[in-house]
Design a protein that fits this description.
Layout lengths: L1 E2 L10 H7 L16 H21 L6 E4 L2 H16 L5 E5 L4 H11 L4 E5 L9 H7 L4 E5 L13 H10 L3 E5 L18 E5 L10 E5 L1 H4 L25 H16 L1 H22 L4 E3 L9 E5 L5 H10 L2 E2 L13 H5 L4 H5 L1 E5 L6 H15 L1
Parallel strand pairs: 1-11, 3-4, 3-5, 5-6, 6-7
Antiparallel strand pairs: 2-8, 7-8, 9-10, 10-12
Helix pairs in contact: 1-8, 2-8, 3-4, 9-13
This protein binds 4'-deoxy-4'-aminopyridoxal-5'-phosphate.
């Protein structure tokens, strides 16, 4: 199979699976149990994973809270801030191209007395930091702007936006789900208060992710209402028995992402450049969406005039090739991202997303490119 839908999910790396397996077999202890060895081993494994992800992010291990993924992380941060800081203000700023786990969360809050400002994007899907600055008000408690977009690959200047918010004493959250393992992430340089990510986007398992909660903004125990009330796991931010095997997988995937970052990002850039050069030469009137330089390497959003993207995806699927006509999380709806970028309904129907994996070989890429061109014709 030729898999070109890595923005939807990625293959679990062999080393990740190997690291996880003992915690599904003999090391099955509950990380919160006391005194005996397998509980201690589970706890050590969880703390090791916390250090691995903290190292990747240049953060401190106690700033990491494990979740079931980025959807939960986005819900936890946004609802947690809203619940804990409502007395300070009820205004939230976000952008019109966020993932649905942000947009539907702020929509939910807007039905409960919060006011939401949706920042527009330019034709590349990028938010202007000046628009963010202009939208902040004395009653703004949170700005949530994604780092990299899952449909078109455009990145935002979250560094400037985080600084603007920091200087105004407003929390800044960024969904970094799509950039992990592809762009360097240094949370000492990026002054975000909160960051969310998900393991399955960078060769970890599904059903696990984490949130970063900056300590310096909030003191040692930030006052965020948990999304899941329960036991005292994760400093009381998230009740529930820790999914040790998944957390170990996230940690290992983070270690590999850090180790291979430069090589992977070079390979993704080269693969993406090779593919786009090939397609430009072969397909008339092809258009590449998203920002030409501020982008995640390896995500290509393509619009072709005569194309029916859904049919193309089905045609390629019959050949055992996977691409996508939009985000897997918004099936059946026309893309809100492309709409916000000013695309007509017709242009949205003519757009496909191809997302690469760094391990793809040039022969596979060439084979894929040939099939894609045949399908486009
Ligand atoms: N945010 C972004 C930008 C994403 O691409 C995704 C996955 N499509 C999510 C959040 C949701 O992640 P998860 O599958 O871990 O809930």
């Amino acid at each position: 199979m030729l898999y070109f839908d890595n923005s939807a999910t990625t293959r679990v790396a062999d080393e990740v699976l190997e690291a996880m397996l003992p915690y599904l077999r003999e090391e099955f202890g509950n990380a919160s149990s006391k005194h005996y060895a397998i509980a201690r081993n589970a706890r050590d494994a969880v703390e090791n994973a916390r250090s691995q992800i903290a190292a990747l992010l240049n953060a401190s291990p106690n700033e990491i809270v494990f979740t079931s993924g980025a959807s939960e992380g986005n819900n936890f941060i946004i609802k947690g801030v809203a619940d804990s800081y409502a007395s300070k203000g009820k205004h939230i700023v976000t952008s019109s191209v966020e993932h649905k786990s942000v947009l539907n969360t702020v929509e939910y809050l807007s039905q409960r007395g919060f006011e939401v400002t949706y920042l527009p994007v330019d034709r590349y899907g990028q938010v202007n930091p000046l628009d963010l600055e202009g939208a902040l008000r004395p009653d703004t408690i949170l700005a949530s702007i994604m780092w990299g977009n899952n449909e078109v690959g455009t990145t935002n200047d979250v560094f400037t936006m985080a600084r603007i918010c920091e200087s105004r004493g407003i929390f800044f959250h960024t969904d970094a789900t799509q950039v992990i393992g592809k762009l360097p992430v240094d949370l000492q340089a990026l002054r975000a208060t909160f960051v969310t990510l998900s393991a399955h986007k960078f060769h970890g398992p599904k059903g696990v992710g984490c949130c970063y909660l900056r300590e310096s903004h909030l003191g040692p125990r930030p006052n965020l209402t948990p999304l899941i009330h329960g036991g005292s796991q994760e400093q009381g931010y998230r009740g529930g028995t820790l999914a040790v095997h998944n957390i170990v997988g996230l940690g290992k995937a983070a270690e590999l992402a850090g180790r291979d970052l430069q090589e992977n990002s070079r390979r993704l850039t080269e693969g993406g450049d090779w593919l786009s050069t090939y397609l430009v030469a072969e397909v008339r009137q092809i258009r590449f969406n998203g920002h030409p330089s501020d982008r995640i390497p390896g995500i290509l959003s393509i619009t072709v005039p005569e194309l029916n993207a859904d049919l193309l995806v089905q045609w390629l699927a019959a050949e055992d090739i996977a691409v996508s006509s939009g985000s897997a999380c918004s099936i059946g709806e026309p893309s809100h991202v492309l709409k916000a970028m000013g695309f007509t309904k017709d242009e949205i129907r003519r757009t496909v997303r191809v997302s690469l994996d760094a391990s793809i070989r040039r022969e596979e890429l060439a084979c894929f490119a040939e099939h894609l061109v045949k399908a486009l014709m």
